[in-house]
Amino acid sequence: MPAQRTLVRPGAARPEDARDASGRAGVGRIWRGGGHRAGIAAAGRELRVVWQAGDHGGRLAFFSGCTDAAYWDIVWRDLGLSYRRSRRGHLPYQLRSTFLRWVAPGGRVLEAGCGLAHFTVAARARGFAAEGVDWAPETLGRIRALLPDVPLRLADVRRLDCPDASYDAVYSPGVCEHFAEGPEQILAETYRVLKPGGIAIVSTPCLNEYLRRRRHLYENGSVLPYEATGKGERSTDPVTSASEPASEAPWNDFYQYAFTPEGMSAILRGLGFEVVDVRLHGTLLTLATWSFPWLGRLPGWLGRLLGFTVDSLPVLRRWGASCIWVARRPLSVTGVSLIPPLNEGAAADQEKRATTMIGEQRGGEREVDLR
Questions:
Q1: Opening angle at CA 316, ends 312 and 319, nearest 5
Q2: 36 closest CA partner among 82, 84, 4
Q3: Which of 121, 167, 182, 288 is close enough to 295 for a disulfide, judged by CB 3.0 to 4.6 Å?
C-alpha cells in the first residue's frame, strides 16, 4: 500500500485540548516538551506521519515511539489529579451532547481506556453506573487512592474481563487508534460486551475533508507552523519527505492513526454495528495546525468561544480535527431497529435532571463551559 512520510513539530497547546488532540499532527520537525496526553513522545523525538492510501480516503499513521502501558503511566504521572469539575458532572460539550442524546439515564457505562478517568467520574455524578478500565497500573493506583468509591480495574481493552452483554454503553476515548494492527479487535470486544441495543461512542483523530482536499500539506514536506498536541517551539526548519511502502514504515515506533469519517464507519459496520451518528469537532484546531497559526495564540476564552461557534456551522464542522462515532449493537426484528435515539426533548430532560441532581449534591453550584 503506497504511503507518504513527513516529519512533524508541535506548537503550544492548552492542556484541556490534548486528550482529543492526540492525532492533530502535520508536517515539520517535532521536539517534544511535555504536555498532557500531548506527552506522546520523549523530548527531542521526531514524530513521523505516513499517509496510507486505501478505501474511504485512506488514513494517516503517526510514529514516535511505542505506546504500551508503561508509556501511559509516564504520561499521566506528570499530571496533577484534580476532579473538582468532574465531580460536578462536567463533560466537554461535544461529548456531553452526544452522550446524553444516545445513552439512557442510569445505564451501566464502561470507559474503555479511561486514563485519568474524568469521564467515569463525571458520568457517575450524572447518575450513570459508570466504571473504567485501563492498562496503566500506576495511574489506576493513584486514582484509587484519591477516589476509592470509583470502580476502576486493570484490563486490556482488547480482552475485557467481563461477560457478554454487560453494558448499556461503552465510551472509547481516543484509544483504538493507538494499536498498529488497527482498531478492529478493540471494537469487536466493545461489541461483545454491549447489550443488544447498547451504544458505543468512539472518538479518534480525524483525517477530515480539509486535509483530504489539501494533501500537499502532508505530502510535500511543508513546514507545519502550529501543532496542538504538545508544548514546543514553532518549526522553521525546512523538511523534505519521501514516499515509502507501508511495509517499510517503522511499526515498532507506531503511535496512532487518524481515520476518515467514512473509513471508521465502514470498520464499525463490518463488525456488525449500526452507525447512527457521526460528529466532527475541533475545526479551529485544524485551521490553526495547518493554515493559520495565529489562531492557536488566541486567549483561552476567545479560542473556546470561536471554536464552539465554528463547530456549530455545518460546512466548517466537516473540517474537525477529531471525530465521534455513535454505533449501536443491533436489536432488530426483520432488520428494523427497536431502539430509537432519545429525542431532543428527552435529552434535554435528562440534562435538566442531571443538573438538578448535581446542584443538590454541590449546593446548587453550576458553571457554564463551552468546551
A1: 115
A2: 82
A3: 288
Cβ density class 235-272: b for 16+ within 10 Å, e for less: beeebebeeeebeebeeebbbbbbbbbebbbebbeebe
Q: What is the DSSP string of 197-258?
A: EEEEEEEEEB--HHHHTTTHHHHS-PPPS--TTS--PPP------EE--GGGS-GGGEEEEE
**Cβ partners under 8 Å of residue 61, min gap 6:** 3, 49, 50, 51, 52, 246, 249, 254, 256, 257
CA distance 275 to 158: 21
Q: Is the pLDDT of residue 104 over 80?
A: yes
Mean pLDDT score of the chain? 75
Task: Give SS3 for 346.
Answer: helix
The CA dihedral of 141, 142, 145, 151, to the nearest 10 degrees, is -60
Beta pairing, strands 108-112 & 167-173: parallel
Instruction: Taking residues 334-361, report their average pLDDT.
Output: 50
What is the C-alpha to C-alpha distance for residues 315 and 304, in angstroms, rounded to an integer? Answer: 19
- Say how many C-beta atoms besides its own lie within 10 A of residue 139's C-beta: 25
Q: Predicted confidence band at 53 (pLDDT cuts at 50, 70, 90)?
A: confident
Give pLDDT tens digits for 114-171.
999 999 999 999 999 999 999 999 999 999 999 999 999 999 999 999 999 999 999 9
pLDDT digits (tens, 9 = 90+) for 245-280: 444 556 778 888 999 999 999 999 999 999 999 999
Closest-CA residue to 157 (of 136, 137, 186)? 186
